[in-house]
Design goal:
Layout: E1 10-15, H1 43-49, E2 61-65, H2 69-75, E3 80-84, H3 90-100, E4 106-111, E5 115-116, H4 119-134, E6 138-143, E7 154-162, E8 165-172, H5 177-186, E9 189-199, H6 200-210, H7 212-219, H8 231-236, E10 242-247, E11 251-252, H9 257-263, E12 272-280, E13 286-297, E14 302-306, E15 311-315, H10 322-331
Helix pairs in contact: 3-6, 3-7, 6-7
Length: 338
């Protein structure tokens, strides 16, 4: 690389989540990002594979919980690990990575547990966004809103800043169904996928201005004292130069079994079946086993998941309530199951 060649983008992979909404597949010792939910390796490995173009990206920084050090290192032996003493949400986690980078490094922040089917399309969007990040914008990527989803945040597009790049005028967190319908019909809103491109210095300056408690705690080595806030609340909703690049890259956050069911391309009967599982006259079900044989007969719209030590059965439309089961187990002191 010549001295005047552009610096490669530094991927920052956030791997601190616990994925409780995918219990019992996802556990404290094996969170969602370490699961192989689709062909091609774990979610973490597939995230890293999207940024393995050495002409565009540097080796990734991975921010993970201290208890995940060995598991993450086994998946990504060449990555630089930054360990959180405890989870404090995304704004402090990204601050750790920004402080470890040079101020003029451009960071691409990636959740480790999202699905992106069109990796090259996503890289093209990153190239399109790069000049804006270099110019001091915080760029987010708006995922095409394919349905009136109430479980996602939305980004409202404003004026065009360049080809395929727009000012982000408003962030809306999980609207009601009627509002989501309006957003999808109007075509000016995208899902907030939680992916960002920005210079490290841009982020740190914005954090110092809009969330000084987080900036001070992280920069002074008091990470546990940092308020547990997402980057959206801490920075994105308050910063001045925020842009959005809309993309249609086959994205899903796999944030529930309902989302996993959709991402698994259900068959003609609407079933997504994996592992030692069999569906007979069943419709609209997600059936997955990592242990015993599971046979579902004459049922509809259920999630049935079995591991070697637990079984989950829940209506697919209520799959967000799985996290309630995890909380109930905690309350009863049954930590061994989580």
């Amino acid at each position: 690389m010549t001295s005047d060649a552009p610096k490669p983008i530094v991927p920052v992979i956030l791997s601190g989540g616990s994925g409780t909404r995918l219990w019992p597949l996802s556990r404290r010792a094996r969170p969602k990002q370490l699961l192989e939910l689709f062909e091609g390796g774990s979610m973490l490995a597939q995230t890293a594979a999207r940024v393995d173009d050495a002409a565009l990206f540097a080796p990734p920084l991975v921010v993970a919980g201290a208890e995940q050090e060995g598991a993450v290192a086994a998946v990504l032996p060449g990555a630089r690990l930054i360990l959180e003493p405890q989870g404090r949400n995304t704004a402090p986690a990204i601050a750790l990575a920004a402080l470890a980078a040079a101020r003029d490094d451009v960071l691409l922040v990636l959740p480790s547990d999202h699905l992106i089917r069109d990796a090259e399309g996503f890289r093209d969007a990153v190239r399109r966004a790069l000049p804006f990040a270099q110019a001091g914008w915080i760029v987010t990527f708006g995922m095409k809103a394919e349905r009136a989803e109430t479980g996602y945040g939305y980004i409202e597009r404003g004026e065009a800043l360049g080809e395929g790049v727009f000012a982000a005028t408003r962030f809306v967190e999980k609207p009601d169904a009627a509002t989501a319908e309006i957003y999808v019909a109007g075509g000016a809103h995208d899902w907030n996928g939680g992916l960002f491109l920005m210079r490290a210095g841009t982020y740190l300056d914005a954090l110092a201005a809009h969330a000084p408690e987080i900036f001070a705690a992280v920069s002074e080595g008091r990470f546990e004292e940092a308020p547990a806030l997402s980057i959206d609340y801490a920075v994105m909703e308050k910063a001045d130069k925020v842009a959005v690049v809309p993309v249609a890259v086959g994205w899903s956050d796999i944030g529930s079994f309902e989302a996993l069911h959709l991402a698994c391309d259900p068959d003609a009967d609407g079933n997504a079946v994996a592992g030692a599982s069999l569906a007979l006259d069943a419709k609209g079900c997600l059936i997955r086993s990592e242990g015993p044989l599971v046979v579902a007969i004459g049922v509809e719209d259920l999630v049935i998941v079995a591991t070697d030590d637990a079984v989950l059965v829940v209506p697919r439309a209520q799959s967000q309530r799985v996290k309630d089961a995890v909380e109930a187990l905690k309350a009863e002191g049954e930590e061994r199951w989580i």
